[in-house]
Amino acid sequence: MPILKKNKEAKIRQYYKPDEKEEELLKHVYERYYSMKDNPQRKDAEIEWDKGEKAWDQFSKESEDLEEWQADYYVPLTTAFIESILSEMVDQSPRPIILPRSAEDKPKATVMKHIFDYTWDVSDGDVELEKVLKDSLIYGNGFAQEYYWEDKRMVKRLIDSTKNKKKQSIGNYEEYEQLDYDDCFMEAVSPYEVFFDGTARTINQGPRKARDAVRRQIMKLEDAKIFFSGDIWDPLNNMRFVRPGGNTDWYSFYKPPEDVDKGDEVEVLWYWSRQPEDWLIIVVNDVLVVAKPNPYKHKQLPFSMTTDIKRPHKFYHKGEPKLLEAIQKELNTLRRMITDRNHLDIDKMWLVDRSETFSEEDLISRPHGMIRVDDPSNYKNMVMFPVLSNIRLMN
Predict the structure, then answer these.
(1) Buried/exposed code over 211-238 (b: 16+ C-beta within 10 A; e: otherwise)
(2) Which residue has the higher pLDDT, 372 or 99?
(3) What pTM does this model have?
(4) 384: pLDDT confidence band, cut at 50, 70 and 90?
(5) Closest to 254 (Cα-Cα) out of 85, 44, 12
């Protein structure tokens, strides 16, 4: 675990002054977060994630380096494979089956099945599951988090209206909190947003399960203030100290990342710990907002994971793009070479006298094109050799 050096001159400590225990928890969360983030196994996995995502998205970095006539065609092999597999998986409508273990469990299993079916329906479980499965095919790992979600926002309703001197109607409004969603929810989580114990091989099963995990979120400051309010989500009354963005010198342990807007966004870290202590700690831009035991009865990390091609004794696994990487490059290379060959055959290069004043645009082939010269016998097109003229570099 990296040992963080506290910025003793942090400006945030001028008005947010945590006690010794809060300071200790803040440091622990950031140490664990940076340790998980810099884990060599995760770093290697992120390289594969980037390659896999670009292969599925048919991204090519060659475009900027190619000349106008050179082909940049990307054969959608990886995309077709992943989408075909996904369609077969979704067609099977996979979901957990709740069955009794013994006869006395039947009443409870029946009730639980109805609860699960209702929750799955209102939370669009099929949609979220499709995202998780797609992530597993692209990245090798698909992650989901299950939690109780209250989607709160502030709205206004008309109480009455009055007339001003100009006889214009002026409404009087009352602001109140509205819940757009209030139930259990399973959310597909991007692998870039969730971090796990570097020694783990699974999340919640076996002797090598993860000790702790961090879920990272980027939120608008106003949204964060609405969400982290009240006795449950702001029991320490510290949300009032949160400031968006800022320079590194402003904070004690927090390092503002590049993907956070310095004007009105904040980075929220949800730290879940199973061992050595039972914790849910939430930190927002170097401010401790929540510090309490895991609120769920199961006392496990609230994440689940599905995999594509398992790597034994590893936490991060292999996706379809990794299998198709060499074939994808070969197909792209051959397709582009054929297209380039056709371009060169149609619009050949020419050998001309050194004193010739024609421009390159004059020699571009076009229907009924004509170039007037004194002695046509002195001009001829070059013979192109495919092996020499179509060498291509692949990303």
Answers:
(1) bbbbbbeebebeebbbbbeeeebbeeeb
(2) 99
(3) 0.82
(4) low
(5) 12
pLDDT tens column, 212-268: 999 999 889 988 998 888 888 899 999 999 988 765 556 766 666 766 666 788 889
Give me the torsion for CA of 237, 240, 244, 249, rounded to 10°.
Answer: -80
Give me the sheet containing 303-307, strands edge to edge.
169-189, 141-163, 303-307
Q: Token pair of 333, please?
A: 């290379």
User: Cα–chain-centroid distance for residue 326?
Assistant: 25
Q: Please tell me whether residue 115 adopts helix, strand or coil conformation.
A: helix
What pLDDT, in 10s, does the model give residues 317-330?
A: 999 999 999 999 99
Q: Give the residues across from 273 on adjacent strands.
A: 212, 279
Residue 15 has pLDDT above 80, yes or no: yes
Cα separation of 394 and 333, whole Å? 7
Task: With beta carbons less than 8 A apart as the criterion, state whether 222 and 286 touch.
Answer: no
Taking CA 227 as the corner, what is the angle to CA 280 and CA 30, rounded to the nearest 5 degrees?
40
Distances (CA, A) of 212 to 246, 271, 281, 376: 29, 7, 11, 79
Percentage of the chain beyond pLDDT 90 is 48
Report the candidate in 175, 170, 174, 215 with the shortest Cα–Cα distance to residue 196. Answer: 215
pLDDT score, position 288:
95
pLDDT at position 253: 67
What does the angle CA 346 – CA 328 – CA 135 come to, to the nearest 5 degrees? 135
CA-based nearest residue to 145, from 268, 272, 42: 272
Say how far apart CA 395 and CA 391 lie, in whole Å: 13
Smallest CA-to-CA distance from 317 within 308, 329, 328 is with 308
How far apart, in whole angstroms, are the C-alpha atoms of residue 215 and residue 260? 16
Q: Which contacts (CB < 8 Å, 24+ apart) does range 237-241 have?
A: 238/16, 238/287, 238/288, 238/289, 239/284, 239/287, 239/289, 241/12, 241/15, 241/16, 241/287
DSSP state of 318: B
Q: What is the per-residue DSSP string for 374-387?
A: S-GGG-EEPPP-HH
Alpha carbon distance 75, 55 (integer Å)? 10
